[in-house]
Design goal:
Largest sheet: 5 strands, mixed
Number of helices: 7
Helix content: 25-40%
Strand content: 15-25%
CATH architecture of the largest domain: 2-Layer Sandwich
Number of strands: 10
Order of helices and strands: EEEHEHEHEEEHHEHEH
Strand order of the largest sheet: 3-2-1-4-5
CATH superfamily of the largest domain: ATPase, nucleotide binding domain
Shape: globular
Structural class: alpha/beta
CATH topology of the largest domain: Nucleotidyltransferase, domain 5
CATH class of the largest domain: Alpha Beta
């Protein structure tokens, strides 16, 4: 089986694949101070609770936007699962030309999600990832990664209101009953939620203008299940899009070996 790691700024998504099937996935809080042994203990426990066997794991692949944690996860794979993990980056075949001015600047998760979206939906496509940051990635009809846009995630926006003001509280992100809030909390929720829906809707429309007709729009990421339902332009929400992209990239590199 394949063990896939999507190392993000807030959480690490871990997926276990048997062939093309995602057998099980987990979310672990990202902590750059944790050692490979600590992450290993957490993951071994999760695998055991799920009733799965570690001895069936034969390969691993990592997408990471937290550089200090990449070698930690690589060590984990070697020490606990006896396999050298592939890392999405230079030297690893993705099957997707990257037309960014400096391809090394693009987050591995953005490329991986774009690979999965194009594989499943074709192109042109827009991938909206509701993570710590909200990213918009454009894929051409030929399957080329063109670039995109980056905005603060909705949670970052909420934290900024709390940290940079004297009297605004930390709040839960959820859809309020009305746009005209009658308390400070409901007013903040209205501004964040409805404002964010507008941000995403408008950004999709601007990117769509540059991509042309028949654009597919796919969402992923933690807040995607909630926000995507508010935006008619988003036709599908794929919570495991990056994990699926990791599986595809692993297969392409495995099949490319002589």
């Amino acid at each position: 089986m394949l063990l896939a790691f999507d190392v993000g700024n807030t959480t690490i998504a871990v997926g276990l694949f048997r062939g093309k099937k995602l057998v099980k996935s987990w979310k672990i809080k990202t902590d750059s101070d944790k050692t490979g042994d600590e992450y290993g203990a957490i993951l071994l426990n999760l695998i055991q609770v799920a009733g799965l066997q570690t001895k069936t794991i034969s390969s691993a692949i990592i997408s990471s936007v937290v550089p200090p944690l990449t070698p930690v996860i690589e060590d984990l794979c070697r020490e606990y699962f006896g396999t050298a993990a592939a890392v999405v980056g230079p030297g690893l075949k993705t099957g997707m030309p990257i037309l960014y001015e400096n391809p090394l600047e693009v987050g591995a998760d953005r490329i991986t999600a774009a690979v999965a979206a194009f594989e499943k939906y074709g192109g042109p496509a827009i991938v909206v990832d509701f993570g710590t940051a909200t990213t918009f990635d454009a894929v051409s009809a030929k399957g080329e990664y063109l670039g995109g846009a980056i905005a603060p995630g909705i949670q970052i926006a909420a934290e900024a209101l709390y940290l940079k003001t004297a009297r605004l509280p930390r709040i839960e992100i959820k859809k309020p009953k009305r746009a005209i809030g009658r308390t400070t909390v409901s007013s903040m929720q209205a501004g964040l939620y409805f404002g964010y829906v507008g941000l995403v809707t408008n950004t999709i429309e601007e990117v769509r203008k540059e991509l042309g007709k028949n654009v597919r729009v796919v969402a992923t990421g933690g807040f995607g299940s909630q926000i995507a339902a508010e935006i008619p332009a988003i036709e599908a929400y794929e919570p495991d899009l990056v994990l699926e992209g990791l599986r595809i990239i692993h297969e392409r590199n495995r099949d490319a070996k002589p």
